[in-house]
Amino acid sequence: MKKQNLKNIPISSFDNNGWLKPPFLLLINLIYLSKGLLLFIFSLASRQNGGDILSFFYPDKYSLYIAIALSIIPLLTIVSFTIGTIGSNLVLKRVLLSISAVLLLVKWISTANILAEEYKLFSSPAFYTLLVHSILIILALTSYKVKLFIKQFIKKKGFLEQDSTENKN
Predict the structure, then answer these.
(1) pLDDT for residue 121
(2) What is the DSSP track for 121-148?
(3) Cα 64-146-129 angle, rounded to 5 deg
């Protein structure tokens, strides 16, 4: 990527090694994917109303277990991006990001399927979940920073990283 295309991104968006830090919209999507485990943790913090909180979001106990299991990969992705440098353990981060993208698509499709089965468009909680989910995905996919962040993982190189040929001169 030409450095002139990067001039609108502040230097604070890059780490010390020249890798673009995870954009806010990407982290929000990953947190949204992790909501099952996060709701479980928040319900544990609220001893008196914890069961009510979980039963409101997950009336079926097994759907809670599935949501917790599916929340582990996005949380691991967030942790892997925030601990250490972005360029370290690149293969692991690429795998976690790819699995999270597949999970995002699967959750969107399953929510749309639930909405199609209910036949209650505006009165269904699945509609509002799908709406929020769609807005987050569209914002992330149209974000220039998210596109650059993903592109650096494809190229396996940070944007401001110096080439080995430049270091020799």
Answers:
(1) 67
(2) TTT-HHHHHHHHHHHHHHHHHH-HHHHH
(3) 30
